[in-house]
From TrEMBL:
The lineage of its organism: Eukaryota, Sar, Stramenopiles, Ochrophyta, Pelagophyceae. It comes from the Eukaryota. InterPro entries: Ubiquitin-like_domsf. This is Ubiquitin-like domain-containing protein. It comes from Pelagomonas calceolata.
Amino acid sequence: MPNDAKRVDSRDDLLATISPKLISPGAEPKPRSIGIDMASLAKSERNAENTEEDDIIKRLDAPVLVVFELPDGSEGEKTFKLGQTVEVLKAFVEDEFEIDMSASRLYLGDEEMPDPFSLSDFPSVSPRKACVVRVAGEVPERAQKK
C-alpha cells in the first residue's frame, strides 16, 4: 500500500470519504441503469393506461339499437351509443313521441332505468342485440297511433 493512501478504519469512514465525490450537494442521485431504458418504460406504462381508456371509450361508443314499447301499444326504435344516459333516451321519447320527459319512466324488463344511469350500467344491454325498453307515461291524444 502506498504511503500517501489514507487508512480507512470502518465502513462508515469509507462512506464519508467516498460519498461527497459521488453526489454533489443538493443533487438527487440518478437511478442506476439495469439495462432498461427508464423513459421507454414510463412511456409504455402511459400507453398501457391510454389503451385501457381507449377500450372503455370504444365500448361506450358502440351502437345499441333501442326498441321503445310505447304505452299505446306502438313501437319506435333508434340507435344510441352504449354510453348514452337514460335522460337522453327520455329526451328522444319526448321529441319523437310527445311523452313528457319529466313524467315518463323507462323500464328494461321489470327494472326501472333511473335518470343518472347510462345504457352501459345495465348488464343485459349489449351492442350485439336490440334492447327493448318499455315506456310508461301519458301519450297525448294527438300523438297516439290509431
